[in-house]
Design brief:
Length: about 110
Amino acid sequence: MSLIQTFALYLVTALAEIIGCYLPLLWLQGRGPVWLLAPAALSLGLFVWLLSLHPAASGRVYAAYGGVYITVALLWLWRVDGLRPSSWDLAGIGLALLGAALIVLGPRHG
């Protein structure tokens, strides 16, 4: 799997997780109907399946995915919640993506 494919898969995975958690939140806060729980469950199932598509060891996949998740979550904050990320948020995104890149691209021994 190429680096671009891996990153795209991480992005779609993060969106599936965030949507799967956001829809129940809307219902719990009284801002959405109960039927939102059905697409939320499907989205979380998709999230789990997408994580299984990565060829790397699961612990490494989860660790690198965390950096992408942080990025997507803060973009969600901006686009969906309407709150612009601060310069500290952007610095955190940079550090998280750097950490994810080190995990994905680092040399492997054994």
